[in-house]
TrEMBL record:
It catalyses: Release of a C-terminal amino acid with broad specificity, except for -Pro. This is Metal-dependent carboxypeptidase. Pfam families: Peptidase_M32. It is an enzyme of class 3 (hydrolase). Belongs to the peptidase M32 family. PROSITE patterns: PEPTIDASE_M32 (PS52034). CDD domains: M32_Taq (cd06460). Broad specificity carboxypetidase that releases amino acids sequentially from the C-terminus, including neutral, aromatic, polar and basic residues. GO terms for molecular function: carboxypeptidase activity. Signal peptide: none annotated.
Length: 494
């Protein structure tokens, strides 16, 4: 065997072990007994020790040094690029720190869940301070020798390789004025009616399964469960999603499901040849989010698809206060003030993300102490949304990301929205009769295009190149803003 063959065989085993760790995380979020939190923390630490040892094994460095890119095809070169990047990053983080982070974030997740349920930030603060200290330590280790040298940028590379806070801040700065202007116009207009009544949980889950199938989710390779915070987990032949239900808000369940199916479809449709290799997963969280958002919003909240969904909901729930398909389309796309990012409409969603982006940069830089986070969050939220936060579960404790150490993750949500806007423009140009299928609940024209132009390639290209290749043009925020202004201008009559 060549050095490359040896390296890839070793990498496949590492990827398989990482999949096992991911399954532990899925279990913790869904069916793990509440009393198992401490033991699960030990289990995560143990497997992280094994993974870190493999990812920093000097033999990997020897193999990399022995391999010439010129001897490899494009797939081999892409695999090598990912492994080199991962090896360079992992060798900067001491094994003791990697293990401490795995244990601390696992324990923090359980403490956060209890604190959120009881609206008790003080209960969570000491645990969170430990997580923040460890993430700052990790960022300092990762930024050593880097050209950027910025602590936040060092963490951002785990989610959006090649991205920088400066570039994101520039993009978000271009988003904000038009979003705020659009929101103000909408909130000054007459609001459409929403759904009324109560919606049986079992019927919601049954419809969620139907909608997931309509978007091409393969239940032979996945399953749907319930979780406090919906997520997608896994890759290749085992890709699981979760959703949640609300007795008075069926859209929470249905659109969380469509969102997570977007993530899962990306993973399920990657070329089988890339299974258990660095190319066998989504290339970045920004690109990943582009899939979940285009499924959820540009497709799932379109006039054509909501017309079909209206009929399916009437079949399941009877009369729920909406008279016809047009009124239902408006109800699905209502813009109303709210605290929760995951329940926000398309217009205000990115404003929720920008808040988190700015605050987490301050936290990592040491400019914002954990103890001051609730006050800083509440002040920023009131300034951005004109509403006072009533409790921490609606404020800085609403998301699981910071408790589990995912600093640098939040901006990829808005980046994904930008990418989704670009993909939607390209999709509409490529499939001009797209709405014909969507009106029948048939998303195959859209999902096939996305599969062929983006999903099948996995991590073959760098993130921005992945979007550029799929769209045929340079990604920017303009298509998203144009789409939002056209859609909501029509709904709200301006």
């Amino acid at each position: 065997m060549t050095a490359f063959d040896d390296l890839m065989a070793f990498e496949r085993e590492t990827q398989a072990l990482a999949s096992i760790a991911g399954r532990l995380g899925w279990d913790q979020e869904t069916v793990m007994p509440r009393g198992a939190t401490a033991q699960r923390g030990e289990e995560f630490a143990a497997i992280e020790n094994v993974l870190h040892a493999r990812r920093t094994n000097p033999q990997v460095g020897d193999w990399l040094a022995a391999i010439s890119d010129a001897d490899l095809d494009a797939v081999g070169q892409a695999n090598l690029r990912h492994i080199r990047r991962s090896y360079a990053r992992n060798t900067k983080v001491p094994a003791k720190l990697a293990s401490a982070l795995a244990k601390a974030t696992s324990l923090s997740q359980g403490v956060w869940a209890e604190a959120r349920a009881n609206d008790d930030f003080a209960r969570f603060a000491p645990t969170f301070e430990e997580v923040v200290a460890l993430k700052r330590e990790e960022a300092a280790a990762l930024s050593q020798g880097a050209e950027q040298g910025d602590l936040y940028d060092a963490l951002l590379q785990d989610y959006e390789p090649g991205g920088s806070a400066a570039d994101l801040a520039q993009m978000f700065g271009a988003l904000r004025p038009r979003l705020v202007e659009l929101r103000d116009k909408i909130l000054g207009a007459d609001q459409p009616a929403g759904v009324t009544g109560t919606f049986d949980e079992a019927a919601q889950m049954a419809l969620a399964h139907e909608v997931a199938s309509a978007f091409g989710y393969d239940f032979e390779l996945g399953r749907i469960d319930k979780a406090v915070h919906p997520f997608s987990s896994g890759s290749g032949q085992d890709v699981r999603i979760t959703t949640r239900t609300s007795a008075t808000d069926p859209f929470n369940c249905l659109y969380s499901t469509i969102h997570e199916v977007g993530h899962a479809a990306y993973e399920q449709r990657i070329d089988d040849a890339h299974l258990l290799t660095p190319l066998g997963a989504g290339v970045s969280m920004g690109v990943h989010e582009s899939q979940s958002r285009i499924y959820e919003n540009q497709l799932g909240r379109s006039r054509a698809f909501t017309g079909w969904l209206f009929g399916r909901m009437r079949d399941r729930f009877g009369d729920f206060g909406i008279a016809n398909e047009d009124a239902f389309f408006a109800a699905v796309n209502r813009v109303t003030p709210g605290y929760i990012r995951t329940e926000s409409d398309e217009v205000q969603y990115n404003l929720h993300v920008l808040l988190r982006f700015d605050l987490e940069r301050q936290i990592i830089a040491g400019d914002l102490d954990v103890a001051d986070l609730p006050e800083a969050w509440n002040a920023r939220f009131e300034a951005d949304f004109g509403v006072r936060v009533d409790k921490v579960s609606n404020g800085c404790l609403q998301d699981v990301h910071w408790p589990v150490g995912l600093f640098g993750y939040f901006p990829t949500y808005s980046l994904g929205n930008v990418y989704a806007g670009c993909l939607h423009q390209a999709l509409r140009e490529a499939v001009p009769d797209l709405d014909t299928g969507l009106a029948k609940g048939d998303t195959s024209a859209a999902t096939t295009w996305l599969g062929d132009h983006l999903q099948t390639f996995g991590g073959l290209r760098e993130p921005k190149d992945t979007i550029r290749h799929a769209c045929g043009f340079e990604p920017s925020e303009a298509p998203l803003l144009d789409y939002l202004e056209a859609k909501f201008g029509a709904i709200y009559g301006f």
